[in-house]
Amino acid sequence: MSMTPSMTTGPQSAAVALPAQMVYGVWRRILREAPLAEAMFDDAVDDAALERRFALSAPECAAVRAYAATPKPTRMFILNYRFRMVGSVQNALESAAPLTYRAIKGAGLDLKALATEFLDSDGWRDDGPFVVGYCARVLDFLADAPATAHPDGLRDLIALDRATAGLIRSLADRPQAAAPDDGRLHVTGRAVAVETAHDLSPWLRSTARIGQDALPARPSAYLSSMPDLAASPKLSGLPLRAAQILAALDAGPVHRQGLRQRLADAGHPGDTPQDDALIARLAERGAIAGHTA
After folding, report:
1. In the chain, where do the E strands start and end?
2. Sequence-separated (6 or more) residues with CB below 8 Å from residue 53
3. What burial class does residue 23 get, using C-beta atoms within 10 Å of its C-beta: 0-12 exposed, 13-18 middle, 19+ buried?
4. How far apart are CA 255 and CA 146, in angstroms?
5. How do beta strands 288-289 and 186-187 pair?
6. Residue 11 gets which letter from DSSP?
7. Contact 221/255 with Cβ under 8 angstroms?
8. Phi-psi category of residue 9: left, alpha or beta, with phi > 0 → left and psi -120 to 50 → alpha
9. C-alpha separations of 263 from 180, 191, 221, 275 in Å
10. CB of 286 closer than 8 Å to CB of 192
11. Side by side, which strands form the sheet with 217-225?
């Protein structure tokens, strides 16, 4: 969105030649910086104060004044831009983190207020069509936002969506690593495990109630997997031991004996009777490959 101000303001009505790139930069700042957008219309703020408070050069201040000379359309463009950006946050969540989007709505949280807080913290950056990366920043913000501390389990759900967004970006950005040819177990990069403090299964089983009830405090684990970027992410419950195995394999390809040692070094049992079945299960879901026996 852009708006070209009249540069023939004031009683002299003398045309002022200002570099287009500088004017564009000033306009972007007006759109993104609410205090500047407020001060430019304040008659009590003179040019010296405007330049000092917002680190503007004299030509930049002249551009601000030119925009302020047409308050009605300038205000309309600012409000329209901010309205559209708040909507873009909601759209990004609905597209790339639908569970978090539904949970926030189900919990009755003010999504517009959260979107505005995020945009203030993010400098009102517009990522255009890059929805997943944009959504990842929104989720980073929501993970620590005071409003998401309740209901219990909401931040675990946000963590699950963050991991999925990271998986998508990883698949898009990184070339697929070559698999070792000696049969060592290794992660494929097409799945990610998330351990949570709460059991998310009630919300995942019935999305109609998602966000409306606090979840039980019960350590759990989930796997988000994607065979490729053309597929939708698939979420499934995962035994904690399987998540520990996957975390141990993140350090690099390893034979079974080495895997046992890594698990022991991490403070877990080196081997359990369930390991063969769990390793086979991770392979079936595309999370790992290699000699699973």
Report:
1. 186-187, 191-198, 217-225, 234-238, 288-289
2. 35, 39, 45
3. buried
4. 44
5. antiparallel
6. T
7. no
8. beta
9. 21, 19, 17, 11
10. no
11. 191-198, 217-225, 234-238
Q: What is the three-class DSSP state of 229?
A: coil
Residues in Cβ contact with 203 at an 8 Å cutoff, skipping those fewer than 6 apart = 99, 103, 153, 157, 209, 210, 211, 215
Residue 123 burial (CB count, 10 A): 11
Using CA atoms, how far residue 188 sits from 74, 175, 176, 227, in Å, is 52, 12, 8, 9
pTM for the model: 0.83
Residue type, 101: Y
The letter for the amino acid at 22 is: M
Could you list the pLDDT tens digit for every one of the 293 residues in the chain? 556 665 554 434 445 578 899 999 999 999 999 999 999 999 999 999 999 999 999 999 999 999 999 999 999 999 999 999 999 999 999 999 999 999 999 999 999 999 999 999 998 988 878 899 999 999 999 999 999 999 999 999 999 999 999 999 998 887 666 777 788 999 999 999 999 999 999 999 888 889 998 899 999 999 999 988 888 899 999 999 999 999 999 999 999 999 999 999 999 998 999 999 999 999 999 999 987 66
**234 φ, ψ to 5°?**
-115, 125
d(CA 159, CA 143): 7
SS3 at position 74: helix
Phi-psi region of 56 (alpha: psi -120 to 50; beta: other; left: phi over 0): beta
